[in-house]
């Protein structure tokens, strides 16, 4: 359903005292910054110019009584309109009302300035706050708008189809949306519905990450109860019946996970089974698998190596979300993932790493620009004339699960493994 529209006759006014009009020099400097950091902008010149103007407005807002104003705007591409179910918002058409003055009414939380392709403007007045990243990603995906916002923490960010772009004080950083990461994770989430994968990524990428809540989530692809035998549950708490399939449960997940550094375990239907558990690793995982980004990444990566029947989601307190399967990273924060690029070059093949025995997807005969190595253990042998695409999920546990009397066991280390073999550099 379309938003209900309230048309208001607004006078055309000149720019009032105190409203700063950015110079063309400042806008050119901002455009150069965006190009240097490879930020995707609209190809159409006029839309591109509008997006740059709006980013300047959110990064350099006016100051009144030592307070910087909040602000948010939508830049609509041609052929797109603002659509939303129900009567969530009123749209106040401003016509050719002065844009600099119109920005005063857009707080980037409940009201946003809208720039239409025909050059007119409007105010989108929501009946509830839509300031959170999850809300704005959903609106961007539904409308195709380019959304600029200044957060309550003073961060300037831009929502585009490819992902979320933020100014970190030094450069523009880019993060893929949850939807962009679904294909990479779904390839490894054997037996799990797409609804669960989408919900869990949405929770991690658009709730926990922007909320600066670090944590670990283990998605079990088989019996969750059996998996609990391989974790340290001494400090765990029983989980209420929460599920990542229900978005209304996300605030409860965020509140609980902000109070523990330990992991949350979900079953294959996305239901919380335990919270505050420690992840154990075998001696084989300790020797073969490492990660330079810290203990949380290292323990999550090693746990996924020991338990291929699980996928581990690690959320850093400073933002990035990393997904591990079989001891390797399978989803990154970048806007374009390496597997997507590699598979577009040539057909892929599979080969087993001689060191960690994991099955690896490669392109044979096409050397990467950097040295190719096993994405699990970092071994170089066997990957000299290849481009490594990623680890392959082998669902060997599914045959095991057919026999409920047979316990699940982590994969054994290669028979030849010894301390003297550990000469390769671990992937970072």
Characterization of the model:
By secondary structure, this protein is an alpha+beta fold. It has 3 domains: 4-175, YojJ-like (1 (3-Layer(aba) Sandwich); 178-331, 3-Layer(aba) Sandwich (YojJ-like (1); 338-421, no CATH class. 25% of the residues lie in helices and 24% in strands. The protein is built from 12 helices and 22 strands. It has helices spanning 24-36, 45-59, 99-102, 133-143, 178-186, 194-208, 224-227, 250-257, 283-288, 295-306, 338-343, 397-401, and strands at residues 4-7, 63-64, 67-68, 71-75, 89-95, 111-115, 121-126, 146-150, 156-160, 163-167, 172-176, 215-220, 231-232, 237-238, 263-266, 272-279, 310-315, 321-325, 328-331, 349-352, 359-364, 386-391. A hairpin with a 4-residue loop joins strand 10 (163-167) and strand 11 (172-176). Helix 5 crosses helix 6. It is globular, with a radius of gyration of 25 Å. It starts with a strand and ends in a 27-residue tail after the last helix.
Condensed summary:
This protein has 428 residues and is an alpha+beta fold. The chain is built from twelve helices and 22 strands. A nine-stranded mixed beta sheet has the order 1-5-7-6-4-8-9-10-11, with helices on both faces.
Write the layout of secondary structure elements.
Elements: E1 4-7, H1 24-36, H2 45-59, E2 63-64, E3 67-68, E4 71-75, E5 89-95, H3 99-102, E6 111-115, E7 121-126, H4 133-143, E8 146-150, E9 156-160, E10 163-167, E11 172-176, H5 178-186, H6 194-208, E12 215-220, H7 224-227, E13 231-232, E14 237-238, H8 250-257, E15 263-266, E16 272-279, H9 283-288, H10 295-306, E17 310-315, E18 321-325, E19 328-331, H11 338-343, E20 349-352, E21 359-364, E22 386-391, H12 397-401
Parallel strand pairs: 1-5, 4-6, 12-15
Antiparallel strand pairs: 2-3, 4-8, 5-7, 6-7, 8-9, 9-10, 10-11, 12-17, 13-16, 14-16, 15-16, 17-18, 18-19, 20-21, 21-22
Helix pairs in contact: 5-6
């Amino acid at each position: 359903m379309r938003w209900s529209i309230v048309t208001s006759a607004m006078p055309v006014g000149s720019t009032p005292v105190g409203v700063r009009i950015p110079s063309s020099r400042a806008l050119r400097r901002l455009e150069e910054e965006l190009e240097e950091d490879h930020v995707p902008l609209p190809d159409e010149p006029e839309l591109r110019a509008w997006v740059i103007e709006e980013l300047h407005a959110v990064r350099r807002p006016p100051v009144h009584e030592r307070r910087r104003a909040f602000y948010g705007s939508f830049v609509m591409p041609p052929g797109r309109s603002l659509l939303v179910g129900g009567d969530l918002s009123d749209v106040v058409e401003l016509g050719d009302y002065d844009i600099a003055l119109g920005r005063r009414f857009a707080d980037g939380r409940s009201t946003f300035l809208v720039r239409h392709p025909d050059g007119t403007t409007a105010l989108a007045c929501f009946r509830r706050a839509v300031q959170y990243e999850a809300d704005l990603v959903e609106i961007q995906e539904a409308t195709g708008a380019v959304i600029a916002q200044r957060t309550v923490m003073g961060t300037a960010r831009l929502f585009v189809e490819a992902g979320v772009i933020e100014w970190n004080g030094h450069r523009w950083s880019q993060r893929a949306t949850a939807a962009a990461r679904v294909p990479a994770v779904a390839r490894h989430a054997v037996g799990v519905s797409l609804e669960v994968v989408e919900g869990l990524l949405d929770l991690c990428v658009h709730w926990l990450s922007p909320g600066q809540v670090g944590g670990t989530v283990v998605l079990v692809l088989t019996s969750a109860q059996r998996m609990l035998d391989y974790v340290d549950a001494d400090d765990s708490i029983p989980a209420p019946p929460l599920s990542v399939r229900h978005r209304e449960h996300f605030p409860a997940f965020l509140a609980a996970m902000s109070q523990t550094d330990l992991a949350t375990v979900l079953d294959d239907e996305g239901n919380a089974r335990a919270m505050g558990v420690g992840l154990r690793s075998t001696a084989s995982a300790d020797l073969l698998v490492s990660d330079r980004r810290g203990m949380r990444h290292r323990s999550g990566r090693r746990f996924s190596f020991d338990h291929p029947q699980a996928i581990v989601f690690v959320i850093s307190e400073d933002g990035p979300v990393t997904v591990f399967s079989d001891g390797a990273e399978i989803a990154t924060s970048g806007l374009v993932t390496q597997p997507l690029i590699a598979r577009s070059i040539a057909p892929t093949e599979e080969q087993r790493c001689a060191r960690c025995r994991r099955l690896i997807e490669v392109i044979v005969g096409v050397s990467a620009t950097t040295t190719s190595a096993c994405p699990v253990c970092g071994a170089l042998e066997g990957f000299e004339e290849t481009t490594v695409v990623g680890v392959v999920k082998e669902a060997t546990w599914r045959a095991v699960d057919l026999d409920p009397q047979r316990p699940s066991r982590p994969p054994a280390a290669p028979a030849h493994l010894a301390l003297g073999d550990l000469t390769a550099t671990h992937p970072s």
